[in-house]
Design brief:
Layout: H1 2-6, H2 14-25, H3 34-49, H4 63-87, H5 89-97, H6 100-114, H7 119-126, H8 130-140, H9 145-174, H10 178-198
Helix pairs in contact: 2-3, 2-4, 3-4, 3-9, 3-10, 4-8, 4-9, 5-8, 6-8, 7-8, 7-9, 7-10, 9-10
Main location: membrane
Membrane topology: Multi-pass membrane protein
Protein name: Membrane protein
Length: about 200
């Protein structure tokens, strides 16, 4: 079973710390497997609830605490990137201006936030490196915190809830096996690919 093979980490409160740190830092290092950790821990939580096995083993993650840990860390990571970009805005602006793609992304984000349509922030949370780009651009452009942070919170909660649900219900339907984890990861990567496709730059008209 997944939670047994991962070992003692999933059976201790440190799993929330590890997940939180991974989610917080992947705004700067998108290669960190934060989604994999959330799904694996949620798979273990399904076993702990008895949803997948009919038995209730001890010392497995609590699904709601897991979601809140991941969502909170996501917002904190966004806030750190946002504030760093705010303070170093001139240098980041120069870097952005050298990339047509980043310039277009900055313009789209600015328009979306100005209209109050922060759905782009939520969508970017699922796209590979999208969270990083959005947080840094919002800070560099000195967008007001009240225009960005509520959407960041919604994005973090949506991503954490979706990732945890994949692991939890994947284990419920397929059992706490690597097959369930693999299918859940494919669904997570599929959502990321779909978000990246929707956010792709449009040809200029």
């Amino acid at each position: 079973m997944v939670f047994e093979s991962v070992g003692a980490l999933l059976g201790s409160p440190w799993i929330y710390v590890v997940v939180g740190l991974s989610v917080l830092l992947d705004v700067f290092l998108p290669v960190l497997p934060s989604g994999v950790l959330v799904i694996t821990a949620a798979t273990a939580a399904a076993a702990g609830s008895g949803a997948a096995t009919g038995q209730v083993p001890h010392n497995v993650p609590d699904i709601m605490v897991l979601i809140l840990s991941a969502a909170t860390a996501s917002v904190l990571g966004d806030l750190v990137a946002y504030r760093l970009a705010w303070r170093g805005g001139e240098r980041l602006d120069r870097a952005i201006s050298r990339s047509r793609r980043l310039t277009r992304a900055q313009e789209r984000l600015g328009e979306a936030l100005a209209r109050g349509g922060g759905a782009l922030v939520v969508l970017a949370r699922f796209a590979p490196a999208g969270r990083s780009v959005v947080s840094l651009i919002a800070g560099a452009a000195h967008r007001r915190p009240r225009d960005f942070l509520p959407w960041s919170a919604l994005a973090g909660l949506a991503w954490a809830g979706y990732s945890a649900a994949l692991g939890y219900y994947g284990a419920h339907w397929l059992g706490t096996t690597w097959l369930a984890t693999g299918v859940s990861l494919l669904a997570l990567f599929g959502a990321g690919a779909a978000a990246a496709y929707v956010m792709r730059p449009r040809p200029a008209t």
